[in-house]
Design goal:
single chain, alpha+beta, Jelly Rolls, Arc Repressor Mutant, subunit A, 2 domains, 5-stranded antiparallel β-sheet, 3-stranded antiparallel β-sheet, 11 strands
């Protein structure tokens, strides 16, 4: 992992432009923000340095996965952030109560803005502050949805729900969807707050029923409508 304070001004401005929070900010002001950032270059599997409560992380390149860790080390996947995404400070409500980590899923470049600089920017730039407010509202709605899902649905239902979410993102054609690369059972377990063994048993059951086919390269959902029906019946 490489941490730097300054990169070329024009390059840093262009990279920050990928984040919608800076829409409408002129280059002079954005250059000042860039100069306040620490930059992290991460390889796949590396963990970002810094605490989410104290830093705004902006994904200028690559893809990051943010997870919560329980005291016994169990992981709960929260969200993935691609280029232009951001997390930290306002992205996780009540973050001080849990341990969070952000892991690179691809070669990634993060711009890291300290909380004090972030809060000052909110006070001084109303457009930026408005964008932050919209982000906070969307994040809160997403967290409420996750809490409801975890509280109401059994493990099988949470798995169906997430597979359907992945199918929507990947595309559904003639009631089929191909998820490539195939999601790992460990990642599915982290996303739905289950153990890998519980996910493996449920996936094996779906396979025997002809609803999915799993290979190393892809997971094929053969009947998306049937999964939706099962979810609604729970």
């Amino acid at each position: 992992m490489l941490l730097t304070k300054d990169i070329h001004s024009e390059v840093s401005i262009r990279r920050l432009r990928n984040c919608h929070l800076f829409d409408g900010m002129d280059d002079l002001r954005l250059g000042e923000v860039a100069s306040q950032c620490t930059w992290q270059s991460l390889e796949p599997g590396q963990i970002a340095a810094g605490k989410s409560q104290e830093t705004l992380f902006i994904v200028c390149q690559g893809k990051m996965r943010v997870s919560a860790l329980s005291p016994n080390g169990r992981e709960l996947f929260l969200s993935d952030f691609a280029q232009g995404g951001h997390f930290g400070v306002v992205s996780v409500v009540g973050a001080s109560a849990v341990s969070l980590q952000a892991q690179a899923l691809a070669p990634s470049l993060l711009a890291c803005l300290a909380r004090t600089d972030f809060m000052k920017l909110i006070r001084e730039d109303s457009v930026f502050g408005g964008g932050v407010l919209e982000t906070q509202q969307a994040t809160t709605e997403q967290l409420i949805s996750r809490v409801i899902e975890l509280g109401i649905l059994r493990i099988s239902g949470r798995l169906y729900s997430y597979l359907l979410e992945l199918a929507e993102k990947s595309g559904i054609v003639d009631n089929h969807s191909v998820l490539s690369p195939a999601p790992r059972h460990l990642d599915l377990a982290a996303r739905i707050a289950a153990s890998r063994e519980e996910v493996s048993r449920e996936m094996a059951r779906l396979g025997k029923q002809g609803l999915i086919t799993s290979t190393r390269r892809a997971l094929v959902l053969h009947d998306v409508a049937a999964l939706e029906q099962r979810l609604h019946e729970l």
